[in-house]
Amino acid sequence: MRYLLIFLVFQSCSSLSNSENEQCTKDSCSALTSSNYYLLYDVNHGEGFNLRRDVYVRMANLVHTLRERTSPESNWTLVLPPWGPLYHWFSYNLQRAQLPWSLFFDLKSLAKFVPVIEFEEFLRLSSPVLTIPYVFALQHFNEGWGEKFEEKLEIRQCNDEAMYEKRSDNYYHGWFFGYEDRVRAKQFDCLSAQGFVTVLVDYAMKNLTWSQEINDEHLLKSVMFDRAETLLHVDYGGYNYWRARRSMRYARRLINLGNRFRSEYLNSTDIHDRTYLVDDWTRAEYLSDQALGGPYLGIHLRRQDYVKARPEYVPSLEHAARQVCHQLLHLNLSIAFIATDANENEIDEVRQHAFKICHISTDQILTYRPDGKILEKILDGGKAIVDQWICAHARYFIGSYESTFSFRIQEDREILGFSKDSTFNRLCGDNEGLSCEKSTVWPIVY
């Protein structure tokens, strides 16, 4: 089950900066006012890295809408939820949590769409214990969508067991990114929700008030929406969807690692591949079909849980090798790069099948396997981004069926200016042969 937490937090801090290096502290912050607003969110532990990136786009657009609909004096900022631990992260950070976004993304670039701040930095603006006056757990209506689609919200009895418990201190306690001792809630209700994520805008503005009691306690004026991934993208594939997505530039050190691998092993550089991006995405121009890509085939081969969850769409290792051979011959390429969650034995099996089928050597099928020191620094999330960055620059890309990992690569390729034909492809299941229905095309909008 997917869970999403959103917190709308109201506090004033006149010296708040969106820089990665500058921050507002207790000493430099002004007293609480109603001029600055903070929106926080989180996703259930079971959700993966790339679905969480999709949720970020939803939340960034929610903040963008709030900034448009409220008065100019109301400054909304998005608080970034710490990363980890995640289901698909297996190495050094298996049990690690509270990882900042700056490990993986360029915060200055994010802030060019909506203002952002790390959660750890946000905690430093508050008292030792952050108290959220209201918590709402969003849930589906028991009776379903009904005969027609409509947006609606209604306080109801909880459909499932609540994730927050009321303790002897008269506050509700829960996970809160692993900061259980530093965050609590004053009130909790379940809110049945249906519609787009922006349905929360009017609800927050019309239905929430803060009593004098809360003001006297010097608590942060805030509201939290849990399980809000129930709500839909407000403009999926539209202009502001792509503005938020384009703002998600990766951390420079991860880009450098990917570029170094491309240069050393794949004869690929941005100049030769026609994949150069300007530093400021807001100044970028439409790059339709401009990119050529490096002289290699990029593949995302999803394994693990997908083998059982999508058996008709996930190829066997032999059939995956057969498709590698087919595409290399068709594209007149000699090297394939595979991003995968398969283990080394499975990758070796793909190489062996490819050698038998089309006589390509084992060193013509490459994967990115950083050494222990690098992996300890970039963690599994960083490795995933490097894998995606390399696939995004390939001459031709083939993804996995309905995989958010593949979706993010396809989005990167749209941003880089690759053709649709070289981007929206997928591996075929064993019963689909070598030609199957392509991935859904979501073209970039400028």
From TrEMBL:
Keywords for the protein's UniProt record, in alphabetical order: Carbohydrate metabolism, Disulfide bond, Endoplasmic reticulum, Fucose metabolism, Glycoprotein, Glycosyltransferase, Golgi apparatus, Signal, Transferase
Pfam families hit by this protein: O-FucT
One GO molecular-function entry: peptide-O-fucosyltransferase activity
Signal peptide: 1-19
EC number: 2.4.1.221
Protein family according to the UniProt entry: Belongs to the glycosyltransferase 68 family.
Descriptive protein name: GDP-fucose protein O-fucosyltransferase 2
Organism: Adineta ricciae
Lineage: Eukaryota, Metazoa, Spiralia, Gnathifera, Rotifera
